[in-house]
Amino acid sequence: MIIGATYALIGPDLRLCKDVLVYIESGKISRLLIGGKRSEAHVFYEEAVLVPGFINMHTHIGDAIAREKAYGLTIFESVARPDSIKFKILSETPPEKLVDGMVTALKEMAARGITTFFDFREGGVLGVKLLRDAISKFPLNGFAMGRPDGCSVEDVLEISDGLGLSSLNAYRNEELISFAEKTKEMNKYLAFHCSETIEQREESIKKFGVSDISRALELNLDFDFVIHLNYAEDEELALLAQKNKLITFCPRANLYLGLKPPPIADAIELSIPFALGTDNIMLNSPDIFRELETAVRLSRIQGATPDPKQLLSAVTATPSKALKLKTGIIDIGYQADFFVFDLAKPNVAFVGDIYKTIVLRGSEMNVIQTYIAGKPVLSQNEPP
Ligand SMILES: [Zn+2]
To answer: Domain locations in the chain?
Structure first.
């Protein structure tokens, strides 16, 4: 299969190339031809750019059935406590309906160019199974980050892609160290929410004498990425920079809940690799275009002017490189995951610069097809 377009963003540095033909064999990119003949492609997209499929680094798609049920509530009333509205709805909903809800989220993401997501699934082993069930019905690259809810950490690691802890505060030091060891032994990912709220930090200080992120650093936990860090202090960010740890920011979800926005400008200044996530679907649509737009505006108010290409990398190549994924980059050997961004739509007329076009003006109206493992997943006649 050969798919071509007027432009494509190639390699880990998202290099803009013209007249690109992407050769696909068994779902992977086997060859790239720059300046190739359009007539050689099976499908050639004119006035379009092939963009690596977006990586949404933090979701909870299990709560798709509760979209907008927590509008105006605090984080504690909506998602953060066992008696919050999220867990009430999750426990009252039959599993089949939860799966149907998750499938709507997968379709929503594919329509916006998202081909990969890391879902922080509640409900232990069963929760991960339901997510897998949803993915079997609509084929996105879903990484299931489970948690030891009602099961052992080994059991959840067995069927998941890693551990995605809600908070470090619920676990003793020895438990966290053993979680990290087991995760690495089984070659899986370890990630957790951190310093999302001031209360989360204060609880950690009260119980363990240090903030949650300082504790993770002091325990030398070998984690792969950390989410939020809205209330992290400068020294903590500097330590993360030293360790070159990936941070996932979720600016729109934070703002929806009235929390302090994440330190995106600091991450840019300190050269900390960062990614973006859309967090709970009940609070926030899984839309990376809107997340990019919000990240730009937040950075501006925080005193930085982010390079649009760096932001585009935050949702493609940066997490791909940090976690050694076989997606998020259009290059030989990678899975053929990309979307076709239409440059002929009126919303992007006269912008010129391709990175600004996608990051500052792009929207789902520009996504004319999304390919996952070389297969188109959006039906033209039957939009998902
Ligand atoms: Zn979360």
So the answer is: 2-53+327-376, 54-322
Q: Determine whether 331 is exposed, middle or buried from the number of CB atoms within 10 Å of its CB (0-12, 13-18, 19+).
A: middle
Classify 54-322 by CATH class: alpha beta
Ligand 1 center from residue 356 Cα (angstroms): 28
Quick check: 185 pLDDT over 90? yes
Q: Are 163 and 186 in contact (CB under 8 A)?
A: no
Q: Report in angstroms the alpha-carbon separations of 202 from 166, 213, 251, 254.
A: 16, 12, 21, 18
The CATH classification number of 2-53+327-376 equals 2.30.40.10
CA of 9 to the centre of ligand 1 (A): 30
Give the Å distance between the CA of 303 and the centre of ligand 1. Answer: 26
Which pTM does this prediction carry?
0.97
- How do residues 77-132 score in pLDDT, each as one tens digit? 999 888 999 999 999 999 999 999 999 999 999 999 999 999 999 999 999 999 99
The amino acid at 380? Q
Let me know: does 259 contact 75? Beta carbons within 8 Å.
Answer: yes
Using a CB cutoff of 5 Å, list residues around ligand 1, an ion. Answer: 279
